[in-house]
Structure formats: C-alpha cells, structure tokens
Design brief:
Blueprint (H helix, E strand, L loop, with lengths): L1 H20 L45 H12 L9 H11 L2 H6 L6 E7 L19 H13 L2 E7 L12 H9 L4 E3 L5 H13 L3 E6 L10 H6 E6 L17 H95 L4 H5 L1
Parallel strand pairs: 1-2, 2-3
Antiparallel strand pairs: 4-5
Length: 359
Amino acid sequence: MGGEIAQVAAAAPAMFTALAARGFDLRMAAVGFFVNPDPPALGTGAPPGTPQDAISGTGTQTLYDNSTDFVNDVNAIGGALNVLYERGLDATLETLTYTGISAQMTAEPDAQRVFVLLTDADSDDAQEQGADVALNVAQNVRDFVVSTLNEWGIQVFVVNSVTEGGGPGTTDADYADIATRTGGQSMLLDAGNVWVDTISSALQALGGPWDDRFHVGPDVGEAMGTEETVYHRQFTFETITARTLGVSGASAVSSSTARASIDSIDSALDMMGEAKNQVGTLERVFNNIINDMAVEAINTSAANSRIEDADVALEATRLTKNMILEQTTLAAATYANSMPSQAVTLMNQQGIGAQGAFG
C-alpha cells in the first residue's frame, strides 16, 4: 500500500488547488484503516461501526484546510499500514463514531461531505478474500451503512488499485454498491491523477449551498461601501437534488431498504419544505423591494412634475415681466412723443402764438 499512499500524498496539492479554483473551501482529513487478524463478517455480533477495530489511531484525524498538514498525516498513516486485511465499510462508520471528524463536520452543517476510500484489496467486511467479485456483505448490513452515510449526507468515492479477483481497476462489489447508493463513484487510482479530476468535477456537479448577490438599487460601482451594502442583497441557497436530499439510494428491493427509504423520503420532504420556505422568503423580500421602488418611482415622477411645473411658472413670470416692460416702454415713448404737440395746443388755447408773443 506504500506506493498508493505516496501517490495520494503527491496528488493532494492538486486536489486542493483544483477545488479552490472552483470556489470550494476544502477541508481534508486522513484516517487509516486495517485489521489484524481478520475479524468476523461485518454485522456479526454488533452493528457496523462498532466496536473500534477497523481504523488506525495514527495521525491527527483532523480536517485541514491546507495540503501540507494533510500530507503529513497521510505519510504518518502510510508508515503504519503493514497488515494484510481491511474493513473499509466498517471503517467509514467507525470514523464517524470514534474520531473527532464527526464533530468537525457538524460544526459546518452546510458543507458537502465526502469520504474517499483508498484501497488495494477487497472489502474483507464479509471475511472474503481472493477471486470473488460478487456482493459478499449481507444486504441488511449494506443497507445500514448506506442509511447511516446518507443521514450524514456523506458521498463515498472508492479509489482502488487492485481489488477482488477481477484484477487492476475492478472495484470491489460491496464498495461499489455503497458508492453508488450514496451518490459517489468507483474509479481506478491512476498515475495521471484522473481520479482527482473525477472527484473534483463530481463535487462541483453535485453542488452544495451557494450564494448569489442581487443588485436592488442604484448602480454605485464595484467599490464596497455603505451604498453597496444598501443596494445589494446576498442570499444562500440549497442545491436540491436526489443526492442532497438523501434519496439517491432509495430502494424497495427488500423490507429493510424500503423502511430506510421511507425515512429518507420523509427527511427529503422536510428539506424541500425548508427550501420552499427559503425561496418564499426571498420572493417576499423582492416583492417588498419592488413595491418600495414603485413608490419611489411615483414619488420621483411627482417631484419631476413639480419641477417642470415650477419651470413653466418661472417662464410665465418672465414672459409677463417682459410684456409689462415692453408695454411700459411703449407707453413712455408714446407719451414722450406727444409732449410737443400738447404744448402747441396749450399755447393756442391761451392765445399765444408767434404774432401775439412778439407784436
């Protein structure tokens, strides 16, 4: 397993980089799993995930936001994996029960959750080894594993090098069943790190909670400031798919799967109800904004009308003023022009003329 561990350590920075480039705030933890000697079949005497006998205590079992710390854990785990047997299905549930990773995931309730199961053997969860590519773990046990993982919203990806008797690239049937029913995939651990791109693309396609920002006011540019806060609204949405609702693995092939599926569907209906309420709240917010903007538009139109009315009144006043000035000027000129004529008439009326004045 040393070569596969080294390959994962080498590929880790690429996964962090690829997901960061797609907007993911990635956290990764490493947990080693092995058993020695080979224990009874999974589910014999205790439910899957108990007791703690399938995972290693090596490493910090901490979700890291950088590849350096994660790779250090991977290398530490790789140095301790020197036994023949593994119980991968058991290990997934023990990780939830006996490590601090479950608490760390709970602290981020909106985060996507993925288990990448790296293996170079068959599951051994049913005590099987050798050339056997059939389903070996009992149906009710696999149902329990799937139900638990779906309750946590965990998607399982199986990355294998050598598995059951089919040779390189042939995924263990039990692992493949769990991966498919939790919305994940099974793939080959290839030297070109295609598996990294496959998982990264699957996470992006699956989607998770996402934010969107809506412009609801005047355009004030890109600078973040008071106006940007006032005139924009940001909302977080849930991605609604069969996988995110936890019903991608729903099945009625047996009474146990049917009961588990009914519980999953009930939970999915609750989630859809919450999502509809969220959209309804957003719709009410936008309706209020639309109503407020409609009122603002009416008020703006009224104010504009008042400005236009004031402009008309001003022009009318100016016109009246000009007309008064024009009429006053005309009256003054007319009066001035009539003064000599009035003087002659007055003199004639008084008997004063050219002859009377000098003769």
